[in-house]
Amino acid sequence: MEFDFDTPVERRGSWSARWERYPAGVIPLWVADTDFRAPPPVLEAMQRRIAHGILGYNVPPAALRDAVIERMQRLYGWRVEPDWVVFVSGIVPGLHLAARHLTRADQHALVPTPVYHHLKRSLVLAGREHTDVPLVLAKGRWVWDEDFLAAAVKPNSRLLFLCNPQNPGGTIFTRDELARLAAFAQMHDLVICSDEIHADILLDEGKPHVPVASVSREASRRSVTLISPNKAFGFPGAGCAFAIIEDAELRRAFSADHHATVHDPSVFGYEASLAAYRECGDWLEAQLAYLRANRDLVEQEVAAMPGLRMAHVEATYLAWIDASGLGVSDPYQHFLEHGVALSPGAQFGDAQFVRLNFGTQRSLLEQALKRISCASRPNPTG
């Protein structure tokens, strides 16, 4: 079946966070959602629910729990029991639940940087002491500085955050890298909270995603793994995610705010997730092929632009671009003045970077790259 990712869809006026923030002349390539229509089976599932006509309170569908368990076994060889799966409305609430309920006020956390800002923000808002552990470029990949990590751990350290695959760097962590991280967590009795929302957006063929909890039984017992089909299958506005937590005490603590401050996924999130996992494999492969070509275009064009450089993007549809060579104080503002809205690097931990979302139609991406190229020339004009 052929899928169309090239035809633009007008998103202004649709309450889109990405498209409503900036004036019409600005190309918005910032927040991480795509400009592609959701897969046909997802839209059909939602339409069937609307046709039913009743949108009352719901319980998590047993069929979706079964689909999650089957998917973890099939893709990763990871055996998950039904009671390990805890449904939440999104990954972000899951991160904040982990920060608030898996640590005490007197405990310490370790968080990688650069990283999706809600990992660190959850600790700040929870009032938890934490240490930023830098990722470093090694053979063109953003990986943990393991020496820094070993020096940063404290006697009161309790929580280790992980983003796998990595946002914004685009790294697919290998089994060996994750095994070392899990061994470190075991040595220091740390809980690992892993954001794995980009697990299905793998651009480098032959590089599989490995859930950190799957590397060993001990890793599983000390892990909270946050997963959602929202990102890969294009329905973040519907809202559905889940945590996989083997340890019963961690599961109880994580669930403490259920129906207190955190609500259930929407019925549309349940419907969309079940359809995505059951019926949308071909659509996902087609989208990955399109994103892979977009990634290649971004890497080729950025390599030719003076003052810019970036690491190879193994996963996600996000490019983490080093703009320090431009010699401007605020690269985000600099590119905005040339008509492209990117995510400011300061949000992720380095103000000299910007993050570009290439999950859009290629024609629009080409326009944006021309503007970025213009902004990268010495004394750019226009």
List the helices and strands and how they pair.
Blueprint: H1 17-20, E1 27-28, H2 40-52, H3 62-76, E2 85-88, H4 91-101, E3 108-113, H5 117-126, E4 129-138, E5 141-144, H6 146-152, E6 157-163, H7 175-187, E7 191-195, H8 217-221, E8 223-227, H9 230-233, E9 241-245, H10 248-254, H11 267-279, H12 281-303, E10 309-310, E11 318-322, H13 331-336, E12 340-341, E13 343-344, E14 353-357, H14 362-376
Parallel strand pairs: 1-12, 3-4, 3-6, 6-7, 7-8
Antiparallel strand pairs: 2-9, 4-5, 8-9, 10-11, 11-14, 13-14
Features:
382 residues, alpha/beta, Aspartate Aminotransferase, domain 1, Aspartate Aminotransferase, domain 2, 2 domains, eight-stranded mixed sheet, four-stranded antiparallel sheet, 14 strands, globular
CATH class category name of the largest domain: Alpha Beta
Order of helices and strands: HEHHEHEHEEHEHEHEHEHHHEEHEEEH
How much strand content do the residues show?
15-25%
**What are the low-pLDDT stretches, counting only 5+ consecutive residues below 50?**
none
Please name the CATH topology of the largest domain.
Aspartate Aminotransferase, domain 2
